[in-house]
Amino acid sequence: MTLFERTSRALLLTQSGIELLAYFRMMGDAANNISVAATGQSEAVTGHVLISATNLMATYFLPPVLKNLRKTAPDLQIEIIASNELSDLRRREADIAIRHSRPKDEALFAKRLKGTTAHLFASKQYLDEVGRPKTLTDLEKLKFVGFDEPALRLGLMASRGLNLTTANFNFSTSSTTVALELVRQGFGIGIFPIEMGAAYPELENPFPGFEPISIETWLVAHRELRTNLRIRLVFDLLAEGIG
Q1: How many CB atoms neighbour CB 61 within 10 A?
Q2: Domain map (residue ranges) of the chain
C-alpha cells in the first residue's frame, strides 16, 4: 500500500494514506476517552488536578479561591496553566478550564459563573501629562496599550463610538499582566476588568462615559471527570469561590 507520492517539492499523502491517518486519529481519540473514563472512577481526594485559565484569571482571581481549596484538601497537587489559548479537555491538556465563552462540545460540562465588566484604565501620571479627555474625540487622540492583535478589536471599540486605528497602539502584548504593568507605567490606556483596575490606586478611568465590555466566565470540565471526587471537589470550590 502506497502512503505517499513524491513530487518535485514534497511528499503528498495518497488516498490510502489519508484514510489511514483518519483511522489513527480516531484511535487516538478513543484512547483519550478511555483515559478520561478511567480517571473519572477515582474516588481519592489526593493526586494531581490541572486547571487552565487565562493569564488574567490565573493571576488575579484564582489565588484567593485556591487558599480555601488548600485548607479543604491539603493533599491535592494543583497545577495551573496560565494561557490565553484554549486547553483541549478531551486530550487531557487540563482537567478543569476557566473560559470566557460557553463551550460547544457536548462532551464537556459547563457552569456559568459570575461575570464582570471591562473598563478603560490609565495611570494618573499619564493623564496628568496628556490631559483628561472630555469627549470621545479627545479620547481618540490618546495612546492605548494593545492586547494580542489590536486591529482585531477596533470594531469592538467602534461599536461603542470610539474610532481608533492601529496608530493608537504603540505597544501591544499577549499578556494581560504585561499590559497592566505598561499601563501602570504610563504607556497609555488599557482595558481591564473593573476589579483589576480598582486594585491599583494609581489608575483611574479616563472616560467613564465609555460603555463597559461584558465578560462571561464559564467553569468547564469533561463530563466523565464529574464522577471523580477530587475533580468534583475542585470544580465545586472554584464555582463557589468565583461566584
Answers
A1: 22
A2: 12-38, 39-115+216-242, 116-214
